[in-house]
Amino acid sequence: MSARPRIDLTEFLDRQGADWYQRTILVWSCLLMCIDGYDMQVISFAAPAIIKAWGIDKAAFGPIFGAGLFGYMLGATLLTSLADRFGRKLTVIAGALLFGVFTLATAFAQTVGQLLALRLIAGIGLGASVPTIVALNAEYVPSTRRATRITVMFVGYTVGSAIAGVISATWLPKFGWPILFYIGGLVPMVAATALSFVLPESIRFLVLRGDRQTQAVAILRKLRPEVDVPGDAELILHEGHRAGLPVWNLFTDGRASITSLLWITFVTSLLGHHFLTSWLPTVLVSAHVSIQNAAVATTLFQIGGSAGSLLIGQLLDRRGVGALAIMLLTAAPLVFWIGNSPPGLLLMVLVFFCGLCVLGGQIGLNAVCGSFYPTFIRSTGTGWALGIGRIGAVIGPVLGGQLIALNLTLPSLFTFAALPFICCGLMTLGLGRMVSRAVSGASELERRAAPEPAGERTPI
Fold first, then answer.
1. Structural contact between residues 36 and 131, judged by C-beta atoms closer than 8 angstroms
2. For residue 170, is pLDDT > 90?
3. Under 8 Å CB-to-CB from 385, ≥6 apart: which residues?
4. Are 153 and 29 in contact (CB under 8 A)?
5. What backbone phi and psi angles, to 5 degrees, belong to 123?
6. How far apart are CA 203 and CA 209, in angstroms?
7. Cβ distance 264 to 124 under 8 Å?
């Protein structure tokens, strides 16, 4: 009796090219990130119209801005573990559907309390979907191109932010603020329906589960149609599985110090990021930059972020986490220099490169957390890093407002704004060193936990 042929899944995936199947996953992932970017910006465009229509005080809108971020944090920390238990596809679709339904319901809100509750629940759905789609992408590409794939996906976030501005400028005056949430709700609901047909389950998750052989083989045949994958092939993944709470496993097998440092790095990065994006236009106008030029500068910041996200993916795949640390450290003097530059061309150039380092660095961190953790806790690890980081996203704008209230000079204000990036860059540098020491040890532990069965190996 002949032995079952064996296929090493990691080797199989590392040898595949960027085929149409991979590109399909990437396109739908970019759409989800576009929805995320739209949502993050659209509430700021809707706020003035809602305040005027309801006759409420501006200060009452502060908690509404934070509700979506807080909901995202809850979804990312509490629900992404479901993806490690029940699968990536189900979590992505359920999160997108939850977000869509409650964003659509926002268009019918009539009180501040209703708006706050709807934004909170919508944020929970988005917090479940986004980290999970990051994990799904990381599990389909060769390890040498993983960071590039994730950072390209996050370009969709910038596109979504830009779309929110265009729609708000053209449709809000004609149809009123609810139109923004009609679009923001219907699009993810349609996307969730389409994803139920086109989005595959994570191949690595299926193999770890061990009870979906037919489904896993069918996906492998789509990934590499030129390879004859036997229906009875035994798929090998050199990763183990640990029992217990997924969050607890983020701190086992030598991952405790890396997880802790990664969380702190996310908090400081998002603190500085949202400090700048929330107050940059206001601060520039107060420094005698025209409103038009302040808007141009803000746009250049986002464009620089898109360029940075594409750049950092290549650097991470080629140079490792050290390249990310250098980018984040470079952001600090650029932020400081903005506060010491007069209005003009130099200021615009500085803002562009600041966006490249700040936003590119943040997206690079997303790629790192999507690449480091093993399959059985990848979604949980990514979700908790992005969720905990939202603490910094909430603190940043509040801290900026407090500093502005102190009537600090522009150079002093931007000196404070530069400090988080110094901390973040130094911690990322330490993170890179710990990862290089720990990954080989963690990989060895995973291999020991998953002994290779006997049988004939099928060449790929």
1. no
2. no
3. 131, 259, 262, 263, 266, 365, 369
4. yes
5. -65, -35
6. 10
7. no
C-alpha distances in Å from residue 161, one per residue of 32, 158, 183, 303, 411: 12, 5, 14, 11, 29
Residue scoring higher pLDDT (435 or 275): 275
Q: Is the dihedral of CA 131, 85, 192, 125 positive or negative?
A: negative
In angstroms, the CA 199 to CA 24 distance is: 8
Per the document, the length of the chain is 460
pLDDT of 267 reads 95
What φ, ψ does residue 341 adopt, rounded to 5°?
Answer: -110, 140
| Angle, CA of 74, 80 and 82, to the nearest 5° | 120
Rounded CA gap, 27 and 449, in Å? 35
Determine the Cα angle at 76 with ends 376 and 261, to 5°: 75
How far apart CA 147 and CA 312 sit, in angstroms, is 8
Name the one residue in this structure whose structure tokens are 């489904």: 215
Angstrom CA distances, 132 to 50, 122, 124, 314, 369, stand at 33, 16, 13, 22, 12
Q: How many CA atoms lie within 13 A of 336 on its CB side?
A: 12
- Scanning 231-377, the segments in alpha helix (DSSP H) are 246-249, 256-286, 291-319, 321-338, 345-372
User: Strand, coil or helix: what is 312?
Assistant: helix
The token pair at 451 is 């002994």
Q: How far is CA 251 from CA 41, 78, 183, 378, in A?
A: 34, 17, 41, 13
pTM of the model: 0.82
pLDDT over threshold 70, residue 446:
no
CB 155 within 8 A of CB 54: no
Pairing between β-strand 234-236 and β-strand 456-457 as defined by DSSP bridges: unpaired
Task: Please report, as a single letter, which amino acid is at residue 227.
Answer: V
pLDDT, one tens digit per residue, over 23-82 is 888 888 999 999 998 888 788 788 888 888 898 877 677 788 788 888 999 999 988 888
Any alpha helices (H) in 55-154, and if so which ranges? 62-78, 80-86, 88-106, 112-138, 146-153
Q: Report pLDDT for 449.
A: 43
Burial class (CB in 10 A: 0-12, 13-18, 19+), 207: buried
| Whole-angstrom distance, CA of residue 171 vs CA of residue 150 | 32
Q: What is the CA radius of gyration of the chain?
A: 23
List, for residues 186-232, the tens digit of each pLDDT value.
999 999 999 999 899 988 888 887 767 788 888 888 877 777 777 77
Contact 390, 269 (CB under 8 A): no
Collapsed DSSP state (helix, strand, coil) of residue 447: helix
